[in-house]
Amino acid sequence: MELILAIGMGVLTGSGVWLLLRPRTFQVIIGLSLIGYGVNLFIFSMGRLRVNTPPVLQSGAVVNPADYADPIPQALVLTAIVIGFATTALFLVVLLVSRGLTGSDHVDGREPN
Amino acid sequence: MTDDASLILMIVLPFAGSLAAIILPTNARNAAAILTGAVAFICLGLAVMFYRSVLDRGVVRSDVEWLPTLGLDFTLRMDGFAWLFAMLISGIGFLVVIYARYYMSPEDPVPRFFSFFLAFMGSMLGVVISGNLILLVVFWELTSIFSFLLIGYWHHNASARDGARMALTITGIGGLGLLAGFLLIGHIVGSYDLDRVLASGDLIRSHDLYVPILVLVLLGAFTKSAQFPFHFWLPNAMAAPTPVSAYLHSATMVKAGVFLLARLWPVLAGTYEWFWIVGFAGMMSFVLGAYFAIFQRDIKGLLAYSTISHLGLITLLLSLGSPLGAVAAIFHMMNHATFKASLFMAAGIIDHETGTRDMQRLGGLFRFMPYTATLAMVASAAMAGVPLLNGFLSKEMFFAEAIETHADSILDTAAPYAAVLGSAFAVAYSARFIHSVFFGLLPADLPREPHEPPFFMRFPIQLLVLACLLVGIVPGLTIGPFLHTAVTSVLGSATPQYSLAIWHGFTIPLFMSVLALAGGAILYLLLKDYLARCEDGPPYFRRLRGQRVFERVLVAVSWRGARFLESHLGTRRLQPQLRLLVVVAFIAAAWPLYRLGFDPGRLTVQGVDVTFAGIWAVGVVCALGAAWQAKFHRLFALVLLGGAGLVTCITFVWFSAPDLALTQLLVEVVTTVLILLGLRWLPKRSADVAPGLATTAAKLRRYRDLGIAVACGTGMTIVAYAVTTRTPPVTIADFFLKKAYSEGGGKNVVNVILVDFRGFDTFGEITVLGIVALTVFALLRRFRPAPDNVESPEQQRVQRAFDEARPDREAGDTVSDYLLIPAVIMQWLFPVIIVFAAYLFMRGHDLPGGGFVAGIALAAAFILQYLAAGTRWVEDRLRVLPVNWIGFGLLLAALVGAASWLFGYPFLTSYSRYVELPLIGSVPAATATLFDLGVFSLVLGATVLMLIALAHQSIRRLRASRTAAQSNEEIA
Predict the structure, then answer these.
(1) Would the CB atoms of A27 and B942 count as touching at under 8 Å?
(2) Among residues 35-54 of chain A, which lie with CB inside 8 Å of chain B?
(3) How do residues B559-575 score in pLDDT, each as one tens digit?
(4) What fold does the segment set A2-49+70-102 form as a domain?
(5) pTM of the model
(6) Would an 8 Å CB–CB cutoff place B736 in contact with chain A?
């Protein structure tokens, strides 16, 4: 399982990095989103992969931490997802405004010579 | 009042006064002066009252913890030496305030002057009574900043601006050196506490880092005290108003450097390096400063070089490493402050009453201002070291020390000769000042008719000159005991026997004094005619100006250097920048792995679930496809991106993260809608427009980028695999799991972490979200689409043409026909989603859900309405106020956090209990739920605001083009 997820993360990140280095703004925004998936999964997997042990307590009285998945990476990733959405939105708007101002969707705001 | 409180008051009062002065109206000259004078007087009173405690207890301390883990305490510490300086700073400060009240013109914004003045006084008091080295540096840098503001007070004057900037640059750099030196000292001693440092002299002197420490600390002290080779800022600082010079450049700011040398004398002095570096700088400043002073035309320039020279004398005395030298140095610090402050004030009076400070234009003023002239003469005599004045006593001690042998070297042999030479120069420039200003003929072309100044402008000089005389005639009865307290506090058990008497018999020092007085007088007589008509500046050295070197260096560093770096290393293109970023990140991750050895772990395929593998096969294809298609097929790439997101979402569910899965799913929906809305404004691009005839260079670029991408992906895979196949160490997760219910009152640990344990982080997080949403909104208000996007999309045009061609159809019918069934479903779903969002929110504390998810869910409900019925239809029927929701959410979260203050707990402490509600039963009611409500409201507002702002662009454009079309028709 770890191997599959690791390969998946690698492909997400690699595709994202490839797009990040492309000249068109739309490619960059898709690339950033892909990197976002990869990195979120990476942070999440630092708490190790466990099946059927969500960090939702069964009873409040006695808690055995070994029965639950690590909640900290999950809390981190949850906010990361929301912030990721916000930055994607901001980047999208910057992209659109830049396209409107310069007439070009090249990342430098002008077509290469 | 306790000593503790009065120590703190001594620092706080000037800064509080400074704030009070700055809010006074610009023309409140008297109010500002009274306020400042009162503050200075109270500080002086506090200092006077302290003498008893200092005498009894030696050292008075006040400790307030600041950042104890970093060894940083707000420690104030008063001993005899600090006391003497505190008296000087507040006493002369008080006199300068009286003087400045009459000196400053009513046209100047005087409250601003006094505000800076008070802040400077507070910083200077802070420097002398700091008991912690870091605190000392903080106050040290504050004196640099406020001196910058004071020197540049007449900011319309270019030379004032330049002088201020130069003083700040030089002393600021020195302050950074000082900080570095103090950090090293703290590293060696293990504490920044001044008392502990003072007790660790042997340890520091024998340490390998002693020389670097010495150089860095001396850099700070020499720049501040304008010692050679950093002396050139002081003459340029003379563009300051004269009260500033009288205060900063005689008694306080420049004294901070020698204060520090004396303060750290027990720690750093006595070594060969100390003797050479400090001795050389001191001797050069002493002799050269005095030599330069003779040839100045500006009175203040003469006084500035004289200050450099006298501070050089003090430095030279401290360099000797003998206790008697230190006594003489401390004594001369006091003497110099009194006569130099009074001379600066006298120079200001001359300038004020005649309109010029040029000694070649002045003359014969004795007849017009006999009082001022007499006072200036006495003070100049003290500066020259004439018997029966305080300057004579310390100079005599200096001569006595100069002839002793301290460290056998050229410097030591040269000391007596340099001492006599420098003193003779001092006699010559003092004589020049007095003779050329007060005697001779009164020139005809003075800008103003000279006369005596107002009484209170002269009064401070009178007091100071009186002090010069009293100390000079009866030293044992006046300064004696106080000097002894100060000396003992610096030298401790090494305090030597010394005598402050005027008459020691016919000794070599007396002979040297006579020689210097006679030599100086003869020198002046010889130079008199030359000085009356020479150019400004000393012969031979006129061309060699530190100022010009400084400016060249500044230009080279800040302009040419920056330009060179920008043109050779910088780029305005984004792609190389991003490439660099990615490569650096890769190296930063790979380098430690390579250095420390890395074992990726054993590769096994055991336990692989076929379903999971299949899901990820889809995910991999989606990711690669999106990367492949993003250039020419944007919509397709977006769909594939959504596929990859969905696989990510399923992974979260699979591995026990239901909260993440929920959030990811909803964010996915909203992101996709958002990008779909944006697609319309991008340029058309199809594969056949750019044929596959890429150049070789472009192909090479692509291969390189592919290489980077593959390397990053592979690295990610290997690291992730290596980490996830290892057993985790014990983490703080156990703490959160155990305390989530007992202290946070919730069973969903992720949610409890977000809204309770790490609530402050979340608060910051939602603030960012709100700011981003407002930024998006603001950016879109100014949005102008590119020319090729102004027209409606082709599909819309076709549909409208079809509608218009048939009389039975109205425009927009076709599109609503297309969406008829989805639209009905979407409208019906509106209440369902609202209930769903409420459900997600309510259960969030105990089960997967929470404010983030609920907010995005409800935002999705709104955007569905927009999709179904169009922007206008929705906004006619619903009040959508996302900006208000953002504000409400942020305010609620902050108020919930602040409410815990009312109960005496830190910000965002939560409280939880169960509440019995009729019909519903037992409901958990934690204050964290209210906080979560704030999160919910903000996330909802931010998401809706961004989506709607983007959606509005289409109708705005349409509306604009329609109005344009209508007006065209009307014209036709």
Answers:
(1) no
(2) 37-38, 40-42, 44-54
(3) 888 888 888 888 888 88
(4) Helix Hairpins (1.10.287)
(5) 0.68
(6) yes
